[in-house]
Design a protein that fits this description.
Elements (H helix, E strand, L loop, with lengths): L13 H8 L34 E2 L2 E2 H8 L7 E3 L3 E5 L2 E4 L2 E5 L4 E4 L2 E2 L9 E6 L8 E3 L10 E8 L9 E4 L6 E2 L61 E5 L10 E7 L5 E7 L4 E5 L2 E4 L9 E2 L2 E2 L8 E3 L5 E7 L4 E12 L5 E12 L4 E14 L3 E11 L4 E9 L7 E11 L14
Antiparallel strand pairs: 1-2, 3-6, 4-5, 5-8, 6-7, 9-10, 9-11, 11-12, 12-13, 14-15, 15-16, 16-17, 17-18, 19-20, 21-28, 22-27, 23-26, 23-28, 24-25, 24-27
């Protein structure tokens, strides 16, 4: 490589240089031949030279260079401001100070970005020409740099309205708050990661990756599982699944199912309201619920709340005119109404009977009459009979017959045969008007 020697200053003293400029007194006319123009000084030191304000270096006057060195944007600074996100599109900062390296301090008031527009980045900066007590914000990045300006932080709204805005503070506290979209896969390694709330979308967590998990930390709208096994330890409290209820009692509406630690570890299930409920309490079954219309049949005719349906007979021997089969164990009220549609001196007899079903042998016993009515011509009889401890498949009948010899069109009518749950004797039978 050839070195251009024309631009090198030979090793000469200042006097020699000035002598070349002017053979007489070197300072009498100054350096007017531009000996130093476009020259390179190699390995030397110039001492005791004063450069005037009108001199230029690289196109800048000395006044401009000196002023630039005093601008806050080229000096170090620190801040006591604390940045935080208050919602998905707002970043706020506390009151604090910004201190410049030369000791100048600016007292900054608390404020926020207000609602940031979606898809934009906002620049938060100090502009002492605009204010020495308030930070400025702009979505135009060039506004945050220049004379008398310091870029303090940047912020952006979050696309997830249930999350918070993101920001990066260049001084003070608050640091960096990133969205998960700004963290690349395989880019972070932690010995321990702790956050207030962890959200993992569509994660696949393989076996043995979670050592323990408190049930109070598990929140889900729907849990799908073949089996949910509750852990129970005697003496450590009840173990149950519930909604609405918090204990094995009837103080609240809802349901509860589990083991009652305070009651000899009985297995219990309770569902309903404080006054109407179904409960399994160990080996005891309790039901105070009203049963919706219960259908029993004789042939194809529904008998519960039988309305105006009449089953008639003109037989002078007892003939079965009503029948129903019990669907579950319990106590029942049977409301039955009859009418002697005959002329005097004829009258009718009616018999209410029950036939028990043997759950062991799966056979029926004999019929037993529980109530009998003798109704005279033109009269009606509406009564309620209480059956206790009826069982599944037990049968209840009404038999009727006419006494003497009825004429044409005369009959014994079994009008109503209605079944109700006997709930603490609170059942009031409906009033049927027989015609």
């Amino acid at each position: 490589m050839e070195l251009e020697t024309d631009n090198l200053i030979p090793e000469k003293s200042w006097n020699e240089l000035f002598s070349e400029a002017q053979d007489s007194d070197p300072f009498s006319g100054g350096i007017n031949k531009n000996i130093l123009v476009n020259k390179t000084i190699i390995g030397g030191t110039i001492n005791g030279v004063s450069i005037g304000g009108n001199s230029t270096i690289g196109g800048l006057t000395m006044d401009e260079i000196i002023a630039g060195n005093n601008d806050i944007n080229v000096k170090g600074w620190t801040s006591s401001l604390v940045f935080s996100a208050t919602d998905y599109r707002t970043v706020a900062w506390t009151a604090g100070t910004i201190t410049i390296a030369d000791g100048t301090t600016y007292n900054i008031g608390a404020n926020n970005t207000e609602a940031m527009n979606a898809g934009q980045v906002y620049y938060i900066y100090l502009d002492i020409d605009a204010s020495i007590t308030e930070l400025q914000k702009s979505s135009t990045n060039s506004n945050s740099v220049g004379k008398n300006r310091i870029l303090v932080a940047v912020a952006a709204p979050n696309t997830d309205t249930n999350s918070v805005a993101t920001f990066q503070a260049f001084g003070g506290r608050g640091g960096v708050l990133l969205s998960v979209d700004n963290i690349a896969a395989n880019s972070a390694s932690f010995n321990e990661l702790i956050s207030n709330t962890a959200q993992i979308k569509d994660a696949i967590i393989t076996n043995a990756k979670i050592i323990s998990l408190g049930v109070d930390k598990l929140v889900a709208g729907t849990i799908t599982s073949k089996a949910i096994t509750l852990s129970f330890t005697d003496g450590e409290g009840d173990c149950y699944i519930a909604a609405g209820k918090t204990d094995f009692d009837n103080d609240e509406s809802g349901f509860i199912m589990g083991i009652d630690d305070s009651d000899s570890n009985k297995v219990k299930f309770i569902i309903g309201t404080p006054t109407e409920y179904l409960a399994v309490l160990g080996d005891t079954f309790v039901n105070t619920l009203k049963i919706s219309p219960y259908t029993a049949e004789t042939g194809d005719v529904p008998l519960l709340l039988s309305g105006g349906h009449y089953t008639k007979t003109t037989s002078q021997t007892y003939t079965k005119v009503k029948e129903m089969t019990i669907g579950r164990q319990g106590n029942y009220n049977v409301y039955w109404g009859v009418y002697a549609s005959v002329l005097a001196p004829n009258y009718c007899n009616f018999s209410l009977r029950v036939k028990k079903y043997n759950q062991s042998t799966l056979t029926y016993g004999s019929e037993t009459e529980v109530e009998n009515k003798q109704v005279y011509a033109g009269f009606t009889s509406n009564t309620t009979y209480n059956f206790t401890d009826l069982d599944y498949k037990d049968k209840i009948y009404v038999y009727a017959k006419c006494q003497l010899a009825p004429g044409a069109g005369e009959s014994a009518n079994a009008s109503y045969f209605d079944l109700y749950v006997d709930r603490q004797n609170e059942i009031i039978p409906p009033v049927h008007n027989l015609v």
